[in-house]
Amino acid sequence: MGRLVMKFGGTSVADIERIRNVARHVKREVDAGHEVAVVVSAMAGATNRLVEWCREASVLHDAREYDTVVASGEQVTSGLLAIALQAIGVNARSWQGWQLPIKTSDAHASARILDINGEELIKRFKERKEVAVVAGFQGIYPETARVTTLGRGGSDTSAVAVAAAIRADRCDIYTDVDGVYTTDPRVVPRARRLDKIAFEEMLEMASLGAKVMQVRSIELAMVHQVRVFVRSSFDKPEDIDPHVSPPGSLICDEAEIMEQQVVTGIAFSKDEAQISIRRVQDKPGVAAAIFGPLAEANINVDMIVQVVSADGATTDMTFTVPAAEYERARSTIDQARDKIGYDKLDSATDVAKISVIGIGMRSHAGVAARAFRALADRGINIRAITTSEIKFSLLIDAAYTELAVRTLHSLYGLDKQG
Ligand code: ADP
Ligand code: ASP
Ligand code: MG
Predict the structure, then answer these.
(1) Which residues make Cβ contacts (< 8 Å) with residue 45, sequence separation at least 6?
(2) Considering only CA atoms, which of 7, 172, 156 is closest in space to residue 77?
(3) For the segment 330-350, what is each residue's pLDDT rounded down to a tens digit?
């Protein structure tokens, strides 16, 4: 007997028929003797609709009220799944974030989970054989008793946090793909499923664009050593042989992975914007004059390239910011123009960041250099580069995203054979 968290994403609970299917998956684990807490997302599309309604009501809106609205999607599915479970004879009870409670920070719309008390759920496993159905994505800020949400994709984080709180043996993430792939399988049909991926690599993949898991969920899994298994919810529960391990990907400690490839995966993101400041005076303090105001405005700067000036008098500074922050970043720089002292601002929003990730890069040189050559051969211009111990990222024109991802996917031997 074990204790499990089973998390189901939006497409897995998109309608009543799929919720029934989820209920049968849960029953399968309960029948196998496990104690189960389920975490659900809102129905596919529901959160987008709620977000849109907030914007329609007012472009600038109170984040506390945004949370009140967008948290409702998960309230619906948690209740529906509890009903569907009861209908097939499984004792189940739904839990909203405020009921458990899932205590969070007060950063509305992107709150962090601070504490979950799992004891009540454990007591009910023991005393009533009751399945807990927890609404994902939401929590409560105790001081004001207001509902909070965890940022888009936040149900993954709810699931890992609940798993840590109830000391679960595993956290199963059921989604619309049967695991974590070398890159998004919707973009590269030759992507391969990874049997295992290290926490560090998954963290990079997620933060560099692979939306299969929310970044924060991997951070939590690393800290609390929660084993996360990503698998498909579309398999028929009746067809699953409990004695055969199902297809999926285990996100685990690096030490558990025997065969380490140099490159594990490729992520990409089109949510970037590039700003270039031309003919900035090349003198001490100029970087501080540019990036200080951006930091104060809470704008995340990612890639930074400074051209060494030939004349020693002026230079060009290029950097990227999230596309959503682009307008704000431009006006922040505009406002600091006198302090910075520059000729003009150039910018581009049709750019994409392609990132190559692998723990093996720690011990292999020249991995990035091969990418530069391969992209050059395809006529793809690289606008900016950043590297770190286990990844490098390249900024290119967005129009070439797919070509670049496929090229690098083949280059590093990630294509599925046959
Ligand atoms: P859910 O609603 O279940 O949370 P998401 O849509 O958030 O599902 O995440 C699953 C999607 O992530 C997949 O449909 C896939 O297109 C995308 N994805 C991006 N990168 C990867 C990757 N490397 N491996 C698997 N899926 C990926
Ligand atoms: N429903 C929320 C979203 O779409 C949370 C989630 O699905 O993980 O972002
Ligand atoms: Mg998701």
Answers:
(1) 10, 14
(2) 7
(3) 999 999 999 999 999 999 999
Q: Which amino acid is at 295?
A: A
**Distance between CA 125 and CA 408 in Å, rounded?**
48
Residue 191's CB is within 10 A of a number of other CB atoms, namely 23
Q: How far is the CA of 185 from the centre of ligand 3 (A)?
A: 15
pLDDT tens profile 65-116: 999 999 999 999 999 999 999 999 999 999 999 999 999 999 999 999 999 9
- pTM of structure: 0.94
- Which residue's C-alpha comes closest to atom 9 of ligand 2? 152
- Ligand 2 contact via 73 beta carbon (within 6 Å): yes
**Nearest Cα to 383, choosing from 415, 344, 354, 341?**
354
pLDDT tens for residues 175-203?
A: 999 999 999 999 999 999 999 999 999 99
Distance CA(334)–CA(329), nearest Å, equals 9
Distance CA 159, CA 163 (A): 6
Identify whether the C-beta of residue 102 lies closer than 8 Å to the C-beta of residue 120: no
Asked whether the beta carbons of 368 and 392 are under 8 A apart, the reply is: yes
Structure tokens at 401: 């995203």
Q: Rg (Cα) of the chain, in Å, rounded?
A: 23
Q: Is the CB of 40 under 6 A from ligand 2?
A: no
47 pocket-lining for ligand 2 (C-beta < 6 Å):
yes
Tell me, using a 6 A CB cutoff, whether residue 179 lines ligand 2: no
Whether residue 82 contacts residue 94, with contact meaning beta carbons closer than 8 Å, is answered with yes
Strand, helix or coil at 395? strand
3-state secondary structure 245-284: CCCCEEEECHHHCCCCCCCCEEEEEEEEEEEEEEEEECCC
